[in-house]
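Quick start: read one record
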Amino acid sequence: MEKKITKVLVANRGEIAIRVMRTCRELGIKTVAVYSDADKGVLHTLAADEAVHIGPAASKESYLVIDKIIDAAKKTGADAIHPGYGFLSENASFSKRCEAEGIIFIGPSAESITMMGDKTKARELMIKHGVPVPPGLQTALHDIEEARTIADEIGYPVLVKAAAGGGGKGMRIIEKPSDFDSGIRAAKSEALNAFGDDRVYVEKYLEEPHHIEFQVIGDMHGNVLHVYDRECSIQRRHQKVVEEAPSAYVDDNLRARMAETAVLAAKACNYYGAGTIEFLVDKHKNYYFLEMNTRLQVEHPVTEFISGLDLVALQILVAEGKPLPLKQDEIQHRGHSIECRISAEDPFENFMPSTGTLTRYRLPSGPGVRVDSGVTEGQAVSINYDPMLAKLIVYAETREAAISRMIRALEEYQISGILTTIPFCKYVMEHEVFQSGVYDTHFVKDHFTVEAMQKSPLKDETKFALATLVRAFAEKTKAGSTTELVETHAENSNGTWWSKRRA
């Protein structure tokens, strides 16, 4: 049954809230923002037609409180809620509560979220439908001796993973049998802290793994389509930093087989809405189901660039009960797109969080450049939420041209007041292994060093701009030591404007 959506409450913050609001505005749909004490007056609250305060800075007292989100929707007359990603986006209870309150949840059914949210149940479902999974335990670990026997059979290294969550939490690589017990204990402890559930399972750790995912979109009429692949193998601590579409590692034959499997996996859980089927591909180009994210992905813009589709618009259309307006053969991909996550982290100090005030924040622009940003100049960056400030996305006709465009855009990005991942992203773009297209999830471990990143040359115009900044700051303070401090940052900034010295 179709129902027109007229007002959407976006149960999120930052760049993804603004991203959703932009599509709503284009569709003539009113929007409602929610905000915590820490987010009063920030960009996403100004982008909406209305804004509702929902509590203290801590997300467990604001953005994660279902009652407060539902109450805000009722007070403002919102007939739909878009959860974005993170927070409540994969919370089956939230989806079910929206349905009970007569509010449209712009996402999949609670049943699909539950089915794919439990990693062991999802694994069992995939096996039942013939989707390949990595060798290992078929269910969550009940007996450590059984798990040890399985590990011995499939061979080390093995991977221990949390059954109830993802994002690298509760995950441990165990290299040898003597580390098995301690690895299991550490994974269970972290899983319990992160998800309130200490169940874990064991699977084979694949050689030279590539993290390849397929965008899928389904409707309530049984149609499921794929929108091609993304490579997400540039990661630190199991968290993605750089993504691109399509993957340079996947050939046309493998792409077709994986796409067919992705659609099969989505149909297995009666999926509708936008979702992502994630795979690991080994050095022999065997692929295995990793997990399904039952929401919009952070990296969805690269798919939008190569396909020309607005995935948020399709989410809304599906949530209204309408059939997808496309057939599979009408979805084509062209050109190449790359996304860099710009986060408030110090890549020179093991990606430690960086906090402070954005004293300068100027975005790159030009042909083929898109910035999904959730912050503005003068805004404070705290540790209350995810450190990602923005996503820098580029598009070009070829992968080589996209890499060059991304380097140019990274050099244009001007940020002062905090440290960011811009130098690391530029290092990746310029590295010969990344440029070859044959890189895996071990890129950071195998190829990244702070020393090499520090040697990355600055463009002449950036050097000039930094030198001007140094002189102006020194003149203002009349302190030679301050000049030395800023010059130190100019040497190490790799195209990023920093106003804080690294400790």
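The radius of gyration is 23 Å.
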